[in-house]
Amino acid sequence: MRILVSGGCGYIGSHTVIRLIENGYDVTVFDNLYNSKITVLDKIEKITGVRPDFVLCDMTDIASLEAIFRDSHFDAVIHFAGYKAVGESIEKPLMYYDNNITGTLNLLELMEKYNVKNLIFSSSATVYGLPEKCPVDEKSPLFCLNPYGRTKLMIEQILLDLCNADKDFSAVMLRYFNPVGAHPSGLIAEDPNGIPNNLMPRIISAAKGKIKELKVFGDDYDTRDGTCIRDYIHVLDLADGHVAALNYVFKHKGNIAVNLGTGNGYTVLELIKTFEKVNGVKVPYSIAPRREGDSKSTYADNSFAKEILGWEAKLGVEDMCRDAWKGALNYE
């Protein structure tokens, strides 16, 4: 079976391509390289022995995108492509709505035209906003705090409407919690362009001395140590979740949303201390005021993923910290 992977040179996309190849799928990647690098294909080939087909393409360019569908038949699409920085989305909302929504509509129109009826969509736990209770299950209220999150929620609604209109279409919307870690080979890791937004890349920047210290936003929350609690999931567990979702869409029609997390919450300070312990390094940090919009605690209820997809996370927070540091050292 051949799978088309949008944004397959990115952090989560590249790890998923590895897992797809290891599970016997033929893979075609398209990416505009806005926040990724073409050299990741060399690393995928080194790890798997297979170089996926690659097309340089922006999904907002429907003519170039259609050429991909004309040239090959695909059994399914895994859709990662999209802008993803929360802060940037607040500063440039029109850019985010145009790229993420218009690009996805182009992709879906071509899937319909070329009779590709199976989709895995890279959604996000940001669609839950500030959760009223934890753990968060798929029936929790949906509310987004920024344009990035709203594009994810809008695309979920588009997919729901499409599946209702086309009874042959199957879509799984995977709501990720906080992906961290790297391939254990160290060859592929999170390598954000510019100033990193997520916690693990900022921990690594502080450990490497690229920044003076890590700012921890708030230590007065009602948690174990006063810092926010999040559900961190190893990127390889996340990649395996996509393979499990593929197995599901080939056998079922319709639309479902599924959480992918570990079901365990760790505070910011616990993640820092674990990183220091397993890697033998110091992470200088200071406490800063709370950030507006940060929730006290967010972690997943994974029971639906286990029931529907037969999937659950296998790697722990120590694996995440160890692999993330190993990958970071290889990206010196």
CATH superfamily of the domain at 2-183 and 232-263 and 299-313: NAD(P)-binding Rossmann-like Domain
Across the major sheet, the strand order is: 3-2-1-4-5-6-11
How large a portion of the residues is in β-strands, by DSSP E? 15-25%
Please give the largest β-sheet: 7 strands, parallel
CATH architecture heading of the domain at 2-183 and 232-263 and 299-313? 3-Layer(aba) Sandwich
Distance N to C terminus: 37 Å
Query: What's the tally of helices?
Result: 11
The total count of strands amounts to 14
Helix percent reads 40-55%
Shape: globular
**What is the C-alpha radius of gyration, as a whole number of Å?**
19 Å
* Helix and strand pattern: EHEHEHEHHEHEEHEEEHEEHEEHH
Could you explain how this protein is built, in words?
Strands 3-2-1-4-5-6-11 form a 7-stranded parallel sheet, sandwiched between helices. It has a 3-stranded mixed sheet with strand order 12-9-14. With 332 residues, it is an alpha/beta fold. It is built from 11 helices and 14 strands. It has a domain at 2-183 and 232-263 and 299-313: Rossmann fold (3-Layer(aba) Sandwich), CATH 3.40.50.
Brief digest:
The chain is an alpha/beta fold and 332 residues long. Helices cover 41% and strands 18% of the residues.
Features of the shown structure:
single chain; 332 residues; alpha/beta; Rossmann fold; seven-stranded parallel beta sheet; three-stranded mixed beta sheet; 11 helices; 14 strands; 41% helix; 18% strand; globular
